[in-house]
Amino acid sequence: MAGDLTRQSDRLLEEGRSLVRDNRAGGRHRRMPSIGKASAELKAKHLANKVARIVTAVAVILVGAGGVGLVIGGLGFGGLMLTICALVAGVVIFSSFPRIKVPKVSDLNTGDVRHMVSRTELWLEHQRPALPPPAVTLVDQIGVQLDALGLQLEHVEPLHPAAVETRKLVGETLPGMIDAYRKIPAQLRREDRAGTGTPDQQLTESLGKISQEIDRVTRQLADGALDDLAIRTRYLDYRYGAEGEPAALPAPDPLAEINRLPDKDKQET
To answer: Is the pLDDT confidence value at 87 over 90?
Structure first.
């Protein structure tokens, strides 16, 4: 019995320490800041809508309580407590819900350029916990680059081949590659099966290439060199299917080989 109480006390103390550390760090949202201005603006707009809902809820509750008080000749202590409880409940509910919706991969390359960039940045932010540290650093770097690329694409005709291919690079190739990596079992991501590096290393290398390509495209767009842009087929070795899923990765590639393994072979590996 004493041992159980000791273990429970230790657990409660550790949970308390974790909560204090989390509060000092500013909570989860501060530990995972926005990777670009576009996603930050999207989250700020979502927060502003939440605040507006809270203000509206508080106003409705206060007006309703005042109206009831006038009709019955005063709320009394019980009515005052009910009003306070309703205010607290309204603030808690509307500050927690609705949560910001993480875009789906299929929705990234849709809409205008501004929405594409903001959705892609927001999607990338939510992939960071599943990525190796070097890849996380590159994702943060890509977020900054996407802001600059988005500004340049706003001045390009949407149907121009350069704009179309650039949107595919950002809205399909980049998220499709990360999505393919996440489908690999975690225990296999650090194994070198083909002598060309682990899936972790291959992902980091591929993100580095995409970062370089985004930088090159942004510079050429700024210089007006639209006809000189050649994306994916010249600089990236990825070929994608109709639905944006990787149809083939560079051979030999651990990502493709592991994904093609039968379930039985994966377990044995």
So the answer is: yes
Residues 79 and 199 occupy one common structural domain: no
pLDDT for the residue 193: 76
Taken as a whole, the chain contains a residue count of: 269
* Nearest to 127, CA basis, from 117, 139, 118: 139
**The model scores a pTM over 0.85:** no
Residue for token pair 């949560």 = 99
Query: How many angstroms separate the CA atoms of 269 and 265, rounded?
Result: 6
Report the C-alpha gap between 227 and 177 in whole angstroms: 27
| pLDDT value of position 239 | 43
H-only helix segments in 25-160: 27-31, 37-72, 76-96, 105-108, 113-127, 133-153
Please give the Cα distance from 110 to 188 (Å, whole number).
Answer: 33
pLDDT tens per residue across span 221-262? 888 766 665 544 444 544 434 344 433 334 334 444 444 445
- Residue 206: closest CA among 166, 241, 179: 179
Tell whether 169 and 84 lie within a shared domain.
no
- 262 token code pair: 């039968």
249 and 123, same structural domain? yes
pLDDT-wise least confident of 30-39, 132-141, 229-238: 229-238
Q: What span, in angstroms and rounded, lies between the C-alpha atoms of 141 and 204?
A: 12
Distance, CA of 179 to CA of 243 (rounded, Å): 13
Count of structural domains within the chain: 2
Q: Which structure tokens are listed for 73?
A: 């000749």
Are 134 and 187 contained in the same domain? yes
